[in-house]
Amino acid sequence: MSTDSSPSAPPLIDLSRILVALRRRRRLWLSLGLAGLLAGAAMAFVLPSPPQAVTRLMIIHEQDAPTDGGTLMQTDVAVLQTTRIAAAALERLGSSEDPERFVRAYEGTGVTNNVLELTVEGRSGQDALARATALSEAFLADYLNRVRAGAEADAQALRDQRGRLQADLTQVDRRIATLTIEGSSAPELETLYARRAELSAQIADLSRRAEEAAIGAPRVAAGTQVVDPPRLVPRKLLVTGATSSLVGLLVGLAAGLGLVTVTSLLRDRPVLRREISEHLGASVIAQLATPPKGPSRLWRRSRRVTDRRRVAVTVARIARDDTSPLSLLDLGCPRMTAALAADLAGELATDGEITVINDLAGTELTMPEGPIRVVEPGSGPHTGRVIGVGSVAPGTAWTDVRALGAETVLVVRAGQAETAWLHTVARQLADLEIPVVGVVLVDPDPRDRSDGTLWEGLHTALRGRTRLADGAVFDAPTTRFAPVPAATNGNGNGAPSHDGDLPTRRFAPVARRSQD
Known about the structure:
Belongs to the CpsC/CapA family. The protein is about 50% helix and about 15% strand. The protein has helices at about 15-25, 25-45, 70-80, 85-95, 100-105, 125-180, 185-215, 220-225, 235-265, 275-280, 295-300, 300-320, 335-350, 400, 420-430, and strands at about 50-60, 105-110, 115-120, 225-230, 285-290, 325-330, 355-360, 370-375, 385-390, 405-415, 435-440, 480, 505. The chain is rod-shaped and about 160 Å long. It has a seven-stranded parallel sheet, with helices on both faces. Strands 2-3-1-4 form a four-stranded antiparallel sheet. The protein has a two-stranded antiparallel sheet with strand order 12-13. The protein folds into four domains: about 15-50 and about 235-265, no CATH class; about 50-230, no CATH class; about 275-440, Rossmann fold (3-Layer(aba) Sandwich), CATH 3.40.50; about 475-515, no CATH class. By secondary structure, it is an alpha/beta fold. Helix 1 packs across helix 9 (about 235-265), helix 4 (about 85-95) crosses helix 6 (about 125-180) and helix 6 packs antiparallel against helix 7 (about 185-215).
């Protein structure tokens, strides 16, 4: 079966690869989340928050109105966060601390339009209470001073206006006295008398208003006070610890997920069956799970052995199709390769003598009972069927791989090698003219639904051997039909035109090779 469709361009961000990486490396980001959880809990107990004192103030505003949206209280909070208030509070405490630093140690919150809550931090409980008291007194004093200053400014403005009217009244009195001496007419004197009465009334009104303004706003002064004395905020270690732990957990999970996502895109280590088969140029013929970690490995041992033997039977079936030596080449899982080689040798030992060439450094092969002989590379001529065991990991001596077998089965661990190294393995084996008859994928993703079979060559979907099927004896011969004569063109040279039908050939169908 072959396809003519051109391969589509890979996406810029492969979501399937990211999801697989998140599942395979869940221990990493879960560990980082747990580390953040423990770090947050430890921070809550090892580095507790400083003691805090809270107090509430009643602030009466002269311009307060039902339509006010809280702008007056926002102004009070902004004034509270100034260095002038901080410096006044530190002066009451007799402290030499920097006001800019002290500003960061407290905050104000408008509870309502007239209630202001102060939260102050201190080095100790007593220090927090003293700071809250000094800060509330400094703010109230500053607020009342500003109210009195405003009232005094209003009173002074009224006095100034009264002084100007008093000067006008003096001029009017002088004019009346002059006209009376001169014996002027009555209408002119009546006009001056009316003007004098008007000025006198205005002066009296301004005097009254100036006196009221000088008194200030007694309601504001009387109502602006501390309504809730400073008190310490009780420490809730459990709540603080839970909050810090939750924050640490979220930060740890975010860091872990981000790290796994970025590394999955940058490291480019294929995990899916489809990617591995494409990069190696061979189909995935079987897959094996890695031994689980923890107590579950005790009762899953028999299942692992059964799966490995099943894969060995599959590889043995491939090996029996040809008498040439077959090699198992490891990439990322030497122990699994050694165990699979032992099972394969035991399966093929029923057919005769087996010679196993062990070129897997640092790994000993434990063979089952039977006519199986384990030798080192270069030990001389071998008898019986030959199985080679080696490695194609980085640092492999490629000239020694040819001696392990004329064909090979790659045992590859998913996510172990980068794409560039998979291409290197495929290219080196092609240069050595060693066909890859299949790939055994170790530790695949359980939710991988991609197809690991290559369908690009005739009769090579399940076998890496490149020989074609033999033609069937009943294939019909090819029939050739004569071309249809065509009329000559009109140029007079007698050359045939190309408007007629071209020669036609009928080819015999290619029959699939029968199974023995």
